[in-house]
Amino acid sequence: MGMEGIGARVERKEDKRFITGKGRYTDDMVVPGMKHAHFVRSPHAHASIRNIDTSTAMKMPGVIGVLAGDELASDGIGSLICGWMIHSKDGSPMNMGDWRPLAQTKVRYVGDAVAVVVADTKAQARDAAEAVIVDYDVLPAVTEAVDALKDGAPLIHDNAPGNLIYDWEIGDSAAVDAAIAGAAHVTRLDLVNNRLVPNAMEPRAALGHYDEGEDHYTCWTTSQNPHVARLVMSAFYNVAPENKLRVIAPDVGGGFGSKIYIYPEEIVCLWASKKTGVPVKWVADRTESFLTDAHGRDHVTTIQMAFDADNKMLAVKADTIANLGAYMSLFSSVVPTFLHAILYSGQYVIPAIHCNMRTVYTNTAPVDAYRGAGRPETTFALERVVETAARELGISPAELRRKNYIREFPYQTPVILCYDSGNYEASLDAAMTAADYNGFPGRKAEAEARGMKRGIGMSSYIEACGIAPSAAVGSLGAGVGLWESAEVRVNAVGTIEVLTGSHSHGQGHETTFAQLVAQRFGVGIDSVSIVHGDTDKVQMGMGTYGSRSGAVGMSAVVKALDKVEAKAKKIAAHLMEADEADIVIEGGQVKVAGTDKALGWHEVSLNAYTAHNLPDGMEPGLKEGAFFDPTNFSFPAGCHICEVEVDPETGKTEIVQFVAADDFGNIINPMVVEGQVHGGVAQGIGQALLEGTHYDPETGQLLTASYMDYTMPRADDLPGYTVSNTVTPATTNPLGIKGCGEAGAIGAPPAVINAITDAIGNNDLAMPATPQRVWAALRSAQ
Amino acid sequence: MTTVSMTVNGRTVSGQCEDRTLLVQFIRENLGLTGTHVGCDTSQCGACVVHVDGKAVKSCTMLAAQANGSEVMTIEGLASGGDLHPVQAAFREHHGLQCGFCTPGMIMSAVDMINRYGGQLDEKTVRAELEGNICRCTGYHNIVKAILDAASKMGDGARVAAE
Prior knowledge:
Chain A is of the alpha+beta class. Chain A is built from 20 helices and 28 strands.
C-alpha cells in the first residue's frame, strides 16, 4: 500500500471546498435571467379537481406564468413511471396508476403538485401560488396499507382494484408449511417497519434552462444519478431528446435514496422554462421535502421461523403488506421484492423459505428506496425473530446464530441469491470481543444497583449490493442495466482525469477513486481529478445507490486503467527498446525490470500525444473507456451489538455502547468506510428510537412535516460507535469490494430493539421506541 | 424595499431588499455568499449559522434589517488568507463531513462553542451544544472528535477569546 493507494487513510480532496463554503449545490447556481418557481400543491389527501382558476394569480406582482396540467398534457409531457416490472403470482402485471407531473383530474396525497407559478422572486411566486384557486371535491382518504386493502376502502387508482399493486411471492410455500407443521419449535412475530423520511440535509432543487437559440435544455438537479434522470426524462417523459438535454448534478447534499428518482419538479422546471422563456429555479422548503420526497420502509409483516429439536433452522415464512403511497415511484416495485424478499436466508442455512408480498396504494407520499432499501426490513424481521427464538428456546442469541451460520461458500439460498464469500462467525466473534459481551452480566448487575434496566442485543445482517448482472436483473423486470462506466484520460503532461458514471454526494469519490489511480501508477492523488455528475462530460452511467459505487463504479475504473496501463507499457517498451512484458509502472516511473532504464510517467504520456515515435500502427493518445457489469451481487455482512440502559421511571433509553463488526470485503479508504458506517448506524438508531412518520388517518395530513415534529437524531441522542472490519474479499469484482454504504442502517435497528426488549423483559415493542412506548411496555411486563 | 448596510467578513456592504428578507437570503442572494445554507424552515437544522457581532446566530431567524450595522462573519470569512481555521482543519482531518451541506453551519457553531467554553469542552458538552445543528451523514461521531481536537489545539487562544 502506498501513501495514497488502496487501503490508505487519505484525507478527502473535496473537503477544502466544503469547509470553506465553496461547495456548489443546485440552489447556488445562478443563470442570467433566472426566475423562481413555486408549486401549487394539494392540501387534500384525496380529491377530484373540478376547476383550476389562475386568473387572479396571473395578475399578481412579478408573475411571469402560471401553468397547470392541461397545458403540460397538451404539450405531450408524459406520466411518471415505475422502472421495474413485477408480476403478481397469478401472472398479471403490476397495476401502475397514472402519475401526472401536474395533476389534472384528481389529487392523491397532500403535496400532489397541481400547478406551478413562475415569478421574478421566490416570495412573489409563493404569494401568487396562494391566489391560484383550485376547486376540489374532497374524497375519503386512506393512509395505512392494511386499511387500504379492506373492503370499502377508498379507491385510489381506477386500474388497481382494492388498491392492490401486486400480490407476489417467492419460495416454496408447501415446503415451508410442512416444515412449520413438523417443527419442534416455531417463533412468530407481528412487526411494523416504521415509515421514515430520508431527510437529506439539502432539500431537493431543480434549475431548468431552455436555450431557444440552440433548442437545447440544461437541468441542474439534486440527483444521485443524472444520466438516469436524462434517460427517463427523454425516453419516457418527452421533455427533450437525449442529445438536446444536459443534466448536471453538481454538489449534492446527501441523498440516501431519495434523490435517485426523477420527480415532477425537474420535468416541470424544464418544460416551464420553454413555456415562459426564462430559466426556472425551484428549491423545496423542508415541509415540501417531507411531503413530497419519496419515503422509506412502511411494512407490516408476520414472520415465522421453525426449528428442529436441535435448534437448527428449518424454515422461514414471511407475509408482508407494503405501503407504496399514492403513486409508484421509479424503483418502488423492486424494493419489497428483489431487494427484500430474496434476503430471507440471512446468514443462515434455512432449507425452506417463503415470502408473500402485497403492495398497496394509499393517500400518502410515494415510498421508494431509502438507505438499505428492502434489506433493513428483511433484517429487522429476521434478526428480531432469531433473538426472540433464542429467548424462547433458552439458549444464548449468539449460540443460536452460531449453530445456524452458513459456513461453506458459494452458498445457494432457496430464494435466488448465491452468496460468494463470507465468514459470519468472524464478525460475531469480533463484535462480541469489542463489546465485552461476556462481561455484560456484571454491567447489568451494576446498573440494577443504580435502579437502571440494562439490556444487550445483536443482529447478524447480510445485504446484497451492486445489483447485477444486467441480464439477470433484466430477466427479473428491471427497465435498466446495472453496470457502470468509466473513462481514464491521461493528459499529455501525465495528469489524469477519471470520468465516472457514479455520483458522489458525500461518499468521497473524488478521493477514493483517485486512490485507485495512485495505486496503479504511483502518481499523487493531487494529479488525478475525478469528473462526475454531468451528462455532457460523462457519456453514460447508472449513478450511486445500493452501495454500488465501489463494487461496480470503481471496477469500471479498474478496467479502464487496465487498458491505459497496457497501452502505456507498449509505448514505453517501444521507446526503451525493451520487451513489453518487462515493463513495470511504479512510483510515477515506467521502468524496465531488472535494469536502470526508466522513463517518467509524464514522458510516456507526452510521447503518446506527440506521436513522433509510437509502435507501428498504434493510434496516438492515452485515453481508454470501459463498462463493468458484475457477474453477481456482492454480499456485505456483519454483526452489530447494542447495549442500552433504560430508565424505568421515564422509559428513556440511552445507548451505552454500539459495536459494528462488518465485512465489506477489501477497503480502499478506511476513514471513509468508517464514516459510512457511523452515518448508517445513526440512521438505524434514528429508526429504532426516534423517527416516526405520522399521517392523520382521517384527513391524510402529514402530522410530522417539519423538524419540530419529526425527530431527527441529534448529537446528544447518539453514542460514539466502535467499528471494526473483518475481510473476506468479494469474488465478483476485480477489487474484492462488497460495499459499505447501507450496512449501518440495516444492522442497527434490530440490534437496538433486541437490546431494549432484553432490558425491559417485554418483547412487544414498536419502533420508534420512544420513552412513552418503552415506559408502557415496561409497565405491562411487570 | 429597504436599504441594509453591514460589515460582512470585514467588508462593508449594503443592499436593497424587501422588509421581509431574512439575513440568510441577503447573504446568499444579495451578496452571493452561498456557503451559508438553508436546510429547514423552522430554525432547527443550523445549516445557516453565521456569527453576528461575535455570536453564533441562525441567519434564518433574523431579518436582514435587524443585522443593519452589525459585524457578520460567514464561513467564507473564517480562514485567514490561505490558512484554514483550526476548526476547519480539524473537520477535514477527522472526516467530520460527508456531503458538506450542514458543514458551514456546524463549523460556525463549533467555533462559537469553543470560544464560549474557552476551549474547555468534553464530549457530553459538545453533543449537548450541537442540539441546534443537524447532520444526516456522519452520525456526529467524527464531528464531535473534530470539535474536541480543535478545542484542545485552540486551548489557550480560545480561553483568551472567551474572557
